[in-house]
């Protein structure tokens, strides 16, 4: 019975491995061409992403070698005169050995091939090794004979799937996936905080990522003044803007930025912000909870439902409006705005959203972009909304 199950499992692993290899070859082909077009969006695959497949080839080959050594030792351990069929029957490794040595590697291989960025983020997290241990235990118990072992295996599978689901949702929120999929097509970050100048937004983000939460408090180095500040939760993020080395260091180097220096970390953060707004920093829910209301306050888009964080001081800021990218400035109750700019290049209109009044600025036809200076201030007049 064991021989049959092991053989079936081995037959499954082989085609899965070839399919995985095919995926990697396809990725390598895309990288060799430099670019591929999908649904109108240009997708660039870096060569370093492909070369990382070496680790999986090595692990898979090592797993096969371990199983072969296991088989040979078991085959030779039988007393002289033992029939060959009996030797072969006892030499085959158990199912759980196939599952652990080949199945787990294949699981990681497929995960990495489908989403290298997501896999690298998981690799850098504190849950990587505990979850791998859970996978191995689950596979082991699920392959054992006996009601108790099978029950434990089933329970571990359910627990693993629940934990994996919760972890995936926490690390990669659906809003972030949506944003990542649409950034290239003109849509911006899911936080709707785009068009806030980098000079205003980045000090706020840095303060929440590596400082005490106040704008401008971000720091690049540990107390020794030399070692780049490490993420306290165990990821590969470093520096003033907590940029993930596993995802961005090679790319940053290719652009001429060394994210281990303060100047390089700052410059690459500006690059990321210009490319995809706040998207890079949205996966960290704790940090986002810190900088999102501060950015909203700076831009004048704080919803009226968030009354506890309304600004008590006037703010002046710039917004840049482009075709298809209007600027929306929200005025909660008792707040007003005034604005300056070349009105021949843009239009504005007002609309109500609940208790908030929203002023929408759009470019006129034929205009590529226009900057508008906006001053937002508190007005205690109960009829504030009638004047604007």
Task: Give the SSE layout.
Blueprint (H helix, E strand, L loop, with lengths): L1 H32 L1 E4 L2 E4 L2 H5 L2 H23 L7 H8 L3 H20 L1 H9 L3 H15 L4 H25 L2 H9 L15 H13 L26 E2 L4 E2 H10 L7 H15 L8 H15 L15 E7 L5 E5 L3 E6 L5 E8 L2 E8 L6 E9 L10
Antiparallel strand pairs: 1-2, 3-4, 5-10, 6-9, 7-10, 8-9
Helix pairs in contact: 1-5, 3-4, 3-5, 5-6, 5-7, 7-8, 10-13
How many domain modules? 3
What structural category characterises the helix and strand content? alpha+beta
Number of DSSP-assigned strands: 10
Average residue-wise pLDDT: 69
Strand order of the largest sheet: 5-10-7
Q: If helices are DSSP runs of H or I spanning 4 or more residues, what is the number of helices?
A: 13
Which band does the percent of strand residues land in?
Answer: 5-15%
Listing every helix as H and every strand as E from the N terminus to the C terminus, the arrangement reads HEEHHHHHHHHHEEHHHEEEEEE
> What helical percentage do the residues reach?
40-55%
Distance between the termini: 81 Å
Please tell me what the overall shape is. elongated
The residue ranges in which pLDDT falls below 50 over 5 or more consecutive positions are: 1-5, 30-51, 170-194, 301-313
Radius of gyration: 28 Å
Question: What is the makeup of the main sheet?
Answer: 3 strands, antiparallel
Structure description:
With 388 residues, the chain is an alpha+beta fold. Helix content is 51%, strand content 14%. The protein contains 13 helices and ten strands. It has helices spanning 2-33, 47-51, 54-76, 84-91, 95-114, 116-124, 128-142, 147-171, 174-182, 198-210, 245-254, 262-276, 285-299; strands at 35-38, 41-44, 237-238, 243-244, 315-321, 327-331, 335-340, 346-353, 356-363, 370-378. The strands form four sheets. It has a three-stranded antiparallel beta sheet, with helices on one face. Strands 6-9-8 form a three-stranded antiparallel beta sheet, with no helix packed on it. The N and C termini lie far apart (81 Å).
């Amino acid at each position: 019975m064991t021989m049959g199950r092991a053989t079936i499992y081995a037959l499954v692993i082989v085609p899965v491995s070839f399919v995985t290899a095919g995926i990697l070859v396809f990725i390598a082909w895309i990288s060799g061409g430099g670019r591929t077009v999908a649904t109108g969006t240009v997708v660039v695959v870096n060569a370093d992403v492909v070369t990382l497949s070496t680790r999986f080839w090595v692990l898979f080959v090592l797993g096969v070698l371990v199983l072969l050594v296991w088989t040979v030792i078991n085959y030779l351990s039988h007393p002289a005169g033992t029939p060959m069929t009996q030797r072969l029957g006892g030499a085959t490794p158990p199912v759980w050995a196939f599952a652990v040595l080949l199945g787990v590697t294949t699981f990681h291989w497929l995960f990495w091939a489908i989403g290298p960025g997501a896999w690298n983020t998981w690799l850098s997290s504190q849950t990587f090794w505990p979850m791998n241990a859970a996978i191995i235990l689950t596979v082991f118990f699920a392959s054992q004979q006996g009601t108790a072992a099978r029950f434990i295996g089933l329970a571990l599978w359910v627990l693993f799937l629940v934990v994996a689901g919760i972890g995936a949702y926490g690390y990669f929120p659906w809003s972030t996936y949506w944003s990542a999929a649409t950034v290239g097509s003109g849509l911006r970050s899911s936080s709707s905080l785009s068009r806030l100048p980098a000079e205003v937004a980045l000090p706020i983000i840095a303060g929440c990522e590596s400082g005490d939460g106040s704008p401008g408090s971000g720091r690049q180095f540990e107390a020794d003044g030399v070692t780049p500040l490490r993420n306290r939760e165990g990821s590969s993020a470093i520096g003033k803007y907590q940029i993930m080395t596993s995802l961005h260091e090679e790319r940053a180097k290719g652009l001429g930025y060394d994210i281990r220096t303060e100047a390089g970390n700052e410059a690459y953060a500006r690059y990321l912000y210009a490319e995809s707004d706040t998207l890079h920093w949205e996966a960290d829910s704790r940090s986002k909870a810190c900088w999102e209301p501060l950015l909203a306050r700076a831009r004048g888009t704080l919803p009226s439902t968030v009354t506890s964080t309304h600004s008590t001081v006037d703010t002046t800021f710039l917004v840049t409006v482009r075709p298809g990218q209007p600027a929306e400035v929200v005025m909660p109750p008792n707040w007003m705005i005034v604005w300056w700019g070349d009105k021949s290049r843009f239009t504005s209109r007002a609309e109500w959203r609940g208790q908030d009044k929203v002023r929408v600025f759009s470019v006129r036809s034929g205009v590529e972009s226009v900057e508008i200076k906006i001053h937002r201030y508190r007005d205690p007049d109960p009829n504030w909304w009638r004047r604007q």
